[in-house]
Amino acid sequence: MGRAEPGALSVAARDRLLSLLGFIAIWWLGSYVSANPNLLPGPQRVALFAWHECVTGALPAAFAATLARVIVAFILAMLGGGTLGYITGRSARVNAWVDPWVVIGLNLPVLVVIVLAYIWIGLNDAAAVLAVVLAKAPTVVVTVREGARALDPGLAEMAQAFHLPQWRRLRHVVLPQLLPYIAAAGRSGLSITWKIVLLVELLGRPSGVGYVLNLFFQNFNVTGILAYGLAFAGLMLLFEAAVLQPLERRATAWRSNA
Q1: Helices 110-121 and 125-149, packing angle to 10 deg
Q2: What is the pLDDT of residue 176?
């Protein structure tokens, strides 16, 4: 079986669109039943508020600050966690040393990591990004470690028999097998990363979506909270559909062609 047919992809896109329309319909119905725009404003009111924030430049500025932190933290977490995950997956001794640290990282509350980073480093972007990386990297390590353990030993023996250089062996033998795990870690990691970034901004940064949400919370502005929160979630949903999902399909295409 080859890659996914265009018809199947169009059906999936249609279903996703219908699902989003259903979400908006349920939201509108909930706002109509509550009959309290201060408690649950309708989609139209939230959309108008978001448009006004775009026109004034407040929403793009907040998005830019948050996206910069998300991108840096995401790249560092994927690179560091992916590298460590591969090494621990291939070496039982290294894994025995690293695994307790990974378990601690997985179970340590994110709030504790953020607070400690701010106390030890200061209320700056370096501490904010470090806190996000420390909170996200353990999940990347676990996912990529499982991929490294699942590598086909037969392919490794074949590469060794043909005396492939280490770089070509990594590129043509190891990476194709690891890509599905890396893609899975990336998809789940992006959603987790931006949520942690919002919490980091809410607690100690003077810019970004999290900072703005904190201001709206103090003023009980539900419309603003929904406008910024859903707009950023929509941006991440668009990025996932346009970038991450196609990359994941391409990463796993070799399995269906095998």
Answers
A1: 130
A2: 76
pLDDT band, very low/low/confident/very high, at 1 (cuts 50, 70, 90): very low
Per-residue pLDDT band at 2 (split at 50, 70, 90): very low
Q: Per this entry, what is the length of the chain?
A: 258
Between CA 203 and CA 182 the distance in angstroms is: 30
Rounded distance between C-alpha atoms, residue 30 and residue 26, angstroms? 6
- Look up the pTM and report it: 0.79
CA distance 97 to 93: 7
Place of tokens 């994941």: 248
Q: Per-residue pLDDT averaged across 28-52, rounded?
A: 89
Q: Provide the token pair at 203.
A: 């607690």
Buried b / exposed e across 35-64, counting CB within 10 Å, b at 16+? eeeeebbbeebbbebbeebeeeeebeebbe
**Exposed e or buried b per residue across 73-91, where buried means at least 16 C-beta atoms within 10 angstroms of its C-beta:** bbebbbebbbebbbbbbee
The 8-class DSSP code of residue 4 comes to P
Judge whether 78 and 139 are in contact, CB under 8 Å. no
Higher pLDDT, 130 or 153: 130
Are 118 and 127 a contacting pair, CB within 8 Å?
A: yes
Please identify which residue in the block is written with the tokens 């942690």.
Answer: 196
What phi and psi values does residue 108 have, to the nearest 5 degrees? -75, 125
- Contact yes or no for 185/138 (Cβ under 8 A): no
> Within 91-221, where are the H helices?
92-107, 110-121, 125-149, 153-161, 166-169, 175-204, 209-218
In eight-state DSSP terms, residue 219 is: T
Separation of first and last alpha carbons in the chain = 8
